[in-house]
């Protein structure tokens, strides 16, 4: 198993980028200023064509978020000094770095809950401070990713951009999600960053540029999540939870759980614990073996987000996070089937 892992790393696009980086460094440090732009374009194109697809198919979420996301961010951002900013690639590195910070915030949240359960006031206060700091970092990174999205595809002004390529549709969808995530991270930080609140309704409108069935019910779940974030934004003829249930059916058919991450966040926004638990149960029922290989990372990141809300419920009631193999169950419960009303 270890030999297979080493072989996979040695043949990965990220590893293959090493000689290119060394050659680029030699040229740059050698004072070859005229090649700066050419080298930057070469590396940006390589990252777009090879690194991004490779990372999207990885199963190692920590390596992708806190490794690639934070590790390559500054290097790739420096290309903007010698050429146009590589917005497409920077969108992904900021997106992944944002998840890294959000997962650290989630761990601090669980530390806060454990300390609160134990009556340790100082530990709880310290954990809450650390949690808000990480949420602020996540908000900044996610908002940066969103700005790269609008630089690459144009502002969310009601007009649909050119999304003929599947990769562009996928990027646009994740970009709408990260815009909402930036708002939520900022709210959880105590509004330290000041993310514009109009992102939510603009993301809801832009989600109609994407086919809801083709993209696993996620565009519809984006709209439902906006309705939980922005009072008065829900059309009179739409029901939030019925919309999520339609998205769950499509997610189940495709084996992709991105819509479930939106569902669980929407339930949390609305303070609706029964719906939150239902979202967790559906996530567990879908499982993790059916996601298309090229989008495995998207599915795994969504599942980790859902699992954190499960961890919160478990920690509040039992003092520990969700046991291994127990996603979809809650303390004191016998195994329960998710509510499938509206799915059949």
Summarize the structure.
The protein has 344 residues and is mainly alpha-helical. Helices cover 69% and strands 0% of the residues. It starts with a helix and ends in a 26-residue tail after the last helix.
Structural commentary:
This protein has helices spanning 2-10, 13-29, 36-56, 61-71, 73-77, 87-118, 121-153, 166-188, 199-206, 218-229, 240-254, 258-270, 273-286, 296-318. Residues 1-12 have low confidence and may be disordered. The protein is an all-alpha fold. It is globular and about 65 Å long. α2 packs antiparallel against α3. It is built from 14 helices and no strands. It has two domains: 62-208, no CATH class; 211-344, no CATH class.
